[in-house]
Amino acid sequence: MPEELTFARELPLTQAAIGFARERHGDQRRAADRAPFMVHLVEVASLLERSRYPDHVVAAAVLHDVLEDTDADPADLEARFGQEVAALVALVSDDPAIADEEERKDAVREHVRDAGGYAAVVYAADKVSKARELRMLMASGAERTETDAKLRRYRKSLDMLEQTIPGSRIVELLRFELEALERMPPKPERG
Fold it and tell me: Which is deepest, 52, 145, 158, 171, by most CB within 10 Å?
């Protein structure tokens, strides 16, 4: 697969990360459209590559969910991809020791705020992709309680990111995605 993705053609660490993520995420699917979960990961990475972030940041974007959603551990990431990539992935990952979902999301947001820099752009690109996925969920008729909670959470993320990395192209893209969802929400499909 790595050779098929043009955005990763000149990024050896990212190519290795795509292979690793594909192995670890296996048959996982996105909730909104049942597409392979890898679609989300390479979308996030592609947003960063097209904004000219370095290979290790794009690789971290590919791996950003591997600690939360697979059996991979930080030591494995560090051994395979280096300390910088492992640290970025850890910064944007939920802490499984926090049981309450809102508290877990708030904690990640605060870690990203404190770290800033590359952690903030990986986090922002993830939220762009998640906002796009939320649009699909809304169009398919997902429960409003679920979609409204996600939208509130993404709005909090946008507020934090605008303070942490003002003027970022990725943050501006997130602002657009959220404004579109709030002002022109998709109508659920009727079957």
Answer: 171
Overall fold of domain 2-183: Hypothetical protein af1432 (1.10.3210)
What b/e readout covers 96-115, taking b as 16+ CB neighbours within 10 angstroms?
eeeeeeeebbeebbebbbeb
69 is catalytic: yes
- Active-site pick, 68, 78, 84, 106: 68
Q: Please tell me the distance from the alpha carbon of residue 88 to that of residue 90, in angstroms, as a whole number.
A: 5
Q: Which residue has the tokens 């972030």?
A: 53
> Catalytic residue among 4, 65, 69, 84, which?
69
Indicate if 100 belongs to the active site.
Answer: no
Residue with tokens 């190519």: 15
Interval 22-56: pLDDT, tens: 999 999 998 788 899 999 999 999 999 999 999 99
131 Cβ contact partners less than 8 Å away, ≥ 6 residues apart = 154, 174, 177, 178, 181
